[in-house]
Structure formats: C-alpha cells, structure tokens
Amino acid sequence: MIRYTIHVVDDEQSIRSGIRSALEEEYTVRTFASAEAAFEAISSETPDLVLLDIGLPGMDGISALKRLKDRTPEILVIMITAYEDVDTVIAAMKLGAYDYIIKPIKLEALEVTVGNALETIRLRKEIQALQADLLQEHVPCFIGESDALQEVMAFITRVARSPDTPVIILGETGTGKELIASAIHYRSPNYRGPLVGVNCSAIPNDLIESELFGYEKGAFSGAAATGKEGLIESARNGTLFLDEIGDLSLAAQAKLLRFLENHEYYKVGGTTKRRVRTRVVSATNKDIDRLIDEGQFRKDLFYRLGVVKVRLPTLSERKKDILPLAHHFLGLFQRKFDSQVRGFAAAAEAWLLQYTWPGNVRELKNRIERAVLVSSGPEILSEELMADDRHGHRVPSPLDADAVEIPAEGIDFNSIMTFTKRAYIEKALRLSEGNEAKAARLLRINHHTFRYHCKKLKLK
C-alpha cells in the first residue's frame, strides 16, 4: 500500500500539531514553521501534498505557492487561510492551488479535502504507469544521449499534454517520424483511444478523400453497399497520423483544412454534417516551403497542421547516439536470429562513426540486421557493414591514417575543414544549378543544415 507524504507549512504550532495528530496515522507528515524551511526539505525529499498557510511570516503563502509550482509543478498544494479572503483564494487557485481550507480547521473537512487530493495523485500515478507500459509495448525507446535527441523528447513530452493540438513532424526519411507520432499519442490524454496511421503517398489521389472522410452507400461506382467509415472517424478520441502529408492532393488539402478548423466534415456523397474530436499528427520529409512556393501545398493548411512543429535531427547530427543505437539493434537481431555475434570489431565501430548515414536510423538498423545475418564470427567486421546499399550509393571506407601527411610544424586543422566544406558545397551548388534543396540532397544533409553552412561560410 502506498503511504503518501504530506508537508504542513504553518507558523502556528497548534495548527501544525493538530494537523499532524489528525493525519499521521494514515500518512507520513512533516511540519515546518516557514516556507524557507519547507523548501530546504523539499530539495532533498519531494512530498506528494503540501498544506500551505497563506499568512506566513517571511515568504508569504502566495509567493511560496508560485515558487513551488515553478520548481515542482506536479506537487498538489492545499492553501490554509485564517478567513475566507476571496481575492487571495482566487489568486492562489490561479497559481495552481488544488483547494483551500479555512481556519479554524474542522477535522472532517480536512480529511475530505486531503483525501480528494491524494485520490487525484493516485489516479495520476496509475495513468502514468499505464502510459509507461503502453510506451514500452508500442514505442521502442529513443536510444541516445545527444543534446539534439534529448531536446526533441523533452519537447514532445510537453506538447503531448494537449488532446487535440495539431503537430507536424519534419525530418528526413528514416529519422523516426512514426516513432515520434506514437510517442506523442501515448503521452497524451488520448492514449486510451486509437492511433490510426495512413501513408498519404500510398493512396491514389482519387481515393484519398473517401479514405479520410468515408463515404455513404452509393456515393460512387464501386462503393460498398453499406458505405464506409473514414480514417478520421476511426481515430475518434485518439490520434490520426498522416504520414507524407506533402503528397496530399490540393482538393484533399482543402477538405482537411476545413476539418482542422472546426472538427466537422461530410462523408463523400453525404449531406449530414459530422463532428469528431481527434488530434491530427502529420509528417513529411519534403521541403514544405518549396512546395508552398510552387503552389503544391496550401500555406494556410501548413499553418493549421503546424501549430506545433517538431524537427527531427538526422543521424549525422546526433553522432553520440550512433554506437548506443548500433548496440541496441545488435541485441535486437541477436535475439531474433539466435545469433552468436556478440559485438563490433574496433574498425567496425570506427566505420559506424565516420559514415554519413543518408538513410538515417532506418539505414543503420538495416545494415546491422544484414551484418548479423552474414557474420560468421563473434564480432561484426567493418566490411560486413560496408556493402553498397540497394540504391548503389558508394560507401566510403575509413580514411587510412598512414595516408595522411602532417608536417613537423603541424597543420591548421580548422582551416582545412573549412576549405573542404566550402569546396564540396560550391561543387554541389554548381551541379544542382544553384538549387539549394538538390545540393543538400547531393551532400546527404537536410536543407536547414545546408543553409546553416552556407551562411557560416558566407556563400549566400
């Protein structure tokens, strides 16, 4: 059985003693005469609930509440006031207080208020545990320690709290957009509802509208006699994930925009307005700005889909994560194929770190799967990772240190790297006739990274 911890902060000894006597049989109760003393204790032990007097000497209760909510927003706080000062109570509630009790404190009212608060905490912990189980089951953990990855995960944890705010995920192929969509769903209030995914590029333009919105019986030639439920309706009270949103036709874009504005739509061939609450998460690996400039994507739809934008870093932008990911996939395929491979040779790890990974995490996973299958020894060798991919891209070998010349007086390493970057970017721009998106693809980096390097090298 969970034993909850309650901190009581009141400058009156009689109040502290009375509350302790009333609650200590069922809860762990600690008392403090000032907010300052309570904060010192909270820095080493986080309570489940705080009973906080408004009229404290030194730091008053309202200031203490604000500081507490800024530092530890998950703690529930019940305010204690000597009289029913409506303005002060309202200020406390606006700052996040759970409830309040009035002095002289009545034992029955205290027990009910504390019991309600702790029931809220119990339910919250149950939901968090259930969501953690669902995440473990449905969403493989994002492996890695890089700042870029940690920033993305912290950001989506915050934005997931809303049940219906649209989110668009931008990133290159293979960066894990589907996993991010799943993580948003299972961290949101919609986690009990369905997660419905559709690849917009895999559905013909003349069918995408009926797939999204459904159709009534007899709506068109070949329609099912009973009609059909659309994907939007299937995602009711859950999340609709629209992958490759950049491939959506302009006609379908217009109808999707109307749905996003008021959550209302009509089935194909229908006259009855329908309303569904669902969150729309979309994703694309395309340059949406270019599509908008070319008239292939509606700017107003992009704004509605992108109320929150999540940009996923490429694997080459999170090099610290390459080896942890590689070992994660190695373990995965060891179990799947009952393989005797136990690790990577030193040269193989060096190759993993220096390769550019144009296919991102997906390519890393695929290469390790193949290497586990073909390896005949206890370690994966670099040549087992370096096979040309199915697109025929040439995979560079690690640079031989013996082939590098360094004079006795040393070299200007930064200047050499800058010169090399400039030369490759200028060459890519010439080959692409000045098209930045094409040049970025030639260098296997995303458009934003390409623009960053151009600006830093003063090429544009």
Note down, in words, how this protein is organized:
By secondary structure, the chain is an alpha/beta fold. The chain has four domains: 5-129, Rossmann fold, CATH 3.40.50; 147-313, P-loop containing nucleotide triphosphate hydrolases (Rossmann fold), CATH 3.40.50; 317-401, Helicase, Ruva Protein, domain 3; 405-456. The chain has helices at residues 13-23, 35-42, 61-71, 86-94, 107-138, 147-159, 177-186, 205-213, 231-234, 250-262, 288-293, 299-305, 322-337, 346-354, 360-374, 382-385, 413-431, 436-442, 447-456; strands at residues 5-9, 28-32, 49-53, 76-81, 99-102, 167-170, 195-199, 214-215, 228-229, 239-243, 264-265, 274-275, 279-284, 308-311, 343-344, 379-380. The strands form five sheets. It has a five-stranded parallel beta sheet with strand order 2-1-3-4-5, with helices on both faces. Strands 7-10-13-6-14 form a five-stranded parallel beta sheet. Helix 10 packs across helix 12 (299-305), helix 13 (322-337) crosses helix 15 (360-374) and helix 17 (413-431) packs across helix 18 (436-442). Mean pLDDT is 84; it is low at 389-398.
